Amino acid sequence: MIFPLTVDRILADRFRAEFGRSVLTVAAPTGTHFVLGGHDPQGSADGYPVGVYAVPPPTAAPRAHLPALQWLRTGWRLRAAAFHPTVPLLVLGTGSYDGGYFFEGELVLLDLATGEHRPLFEEGCRREVRSLEWTDAHTLRILLAPYDDWEDRAAWLEGHRVDLVRPDWRTVPAHSVRHTELTGPRVPASLPEPAPALAAPDAEGPRPGEIRSLTVLPDGDILLTADHVLLERWSARGERRWSVPADPDLGGGRTAVALPEGDSAWVEALGPSHGGSGTFLRIALSDGTERERRTTPGAASLVSTSEGPLLVPTRAGYGERARSLFRHSPHAIFRDVSGSACVCDCPWDDDEDCDCRCTCPACAGEREDAEVWLTVVDTRRTGRPVDLAFPAVERCRRVFPWSWEPGETHFGGPGVGVGETDLVMATVRHDGRVGPPVQGFVARRSTAEGSTGAPSWVFSVDRTPTALDIDPATGTVFVALGSGELIALEATTGRLLARGHVPVRGAPVIPTAVTVAGPGRILLGTCDGRVLIATAR
Questions:
Q1: Where are the beta strands (DSSP E) in 166-299?
Q2: Using CA atoms, how far apart are residues 67 and 210, in angstroms rounded to an integer?
Q3: Which residue, of 95, 298, 362, 443, has the greatest Cβ tally within 10 A?
Q4: Rounded to 5°, angle at Cα 303 from 314 and 488
Q5: What pLDDT sits at residue 383?
């Protein structure tokens, strides 16, 4: 399903950006089409991209953007592909080593006329496919990796040759190839080498990472943070004004908050994934030079409030899952951990043994099982916004438990303020499992005096919410999911207004940042480093 959105302009666009880098290109024998497989820019959480394209005409520019005719994602990276000799069918072979014992993969049949694709191996059968060949219109020859390499190092260089015969491949049902059919003689079957690039993406230079945040400045320019840049400024017309590349030690940028004076912005560095501290830089908006740097002794997050940017503590033990970014709220809101008074000389407060909910390693380690609260920081302008600081403890007010269901653990996530007291927030329930399905929610809660935190509505989702923003003109909440789906909800009732994917040249993008730039105007940052300027229909 396609989300009702029109993409008007693309910032930071690149040739075949949807693939990251290609791993395999296979041309049709007729020379009219080719299939291209690549790395997923987001780490293959939702599969590896595979697209079918028409071969560019001789008159086309060398790097012309052609739309994908067919597009899908496979569970493993593309290893082989073969166009059927007589009918519009394409068979795909995928696979990889799991890092322990097994060579896993799949066989997928794609109907080029309808776009329907069917996995052919029976349920529970996962065999890596290393080579494919049609010997005639009825026979598909497959080279399969051995099931595992346990005491069999030759499994990396040899495999099993199997001939699958079907009278009409157009009618082959899904999951109809039995495991017992996949036995055959042992023959050389090393991993395929990537074919020479045919209209493939650049193979040189660092691959752009996902966009983390988007901020619209008063003059219409756009600030972005990403895995590959700490901070970057673009004009709405698509001109990059300056860029601060990711630091080898600090990584890229997570969030940015422009100061009211308009001359600089604070940016939160991603930092090492195992780190327990935070680094924040103040960047000049005129030329991207660093003006100031602040390092906190414990994990912290940068939040935006009506009084300017603030720092709030973050529970380091949960990493990214503990973070909660709320926008458009007069208050700073964060995921707080209850506990006894600090036992250290807390570097975040002038008073020793203060009850400031410190997350320094000594204190956080004592409260692993402590209750998690939603805490607001009462608005009070103190000092200059340029003086990035933690709020005094007396300004922090615990409102209600973060999880509205007793006994459940809800992680952090994006959210927005609605009016003076309400929040629309997205979160995921921790159920002890790894990977999908994910039990996620978008919910509306009130922080008014006496509120219990019970949501007025809850909308369930099956993937992790990655970004969220609201269009105040229409009261529409836009939520991006890790699957790439975009959802529009009515802020008052939670009613679903629209959902679907956003395609660019026939390939759906995976939004990782969402910012409403004006009535009906939406900015989408993607996992492949692009920014889409779009209009909601």
A1: 186-188, 211-216, 222-226, 229-234, 240-245, 253-258, 264-269, 278-284, 290-296
A2: 22
A3: 95
A4: 105
A5: 61
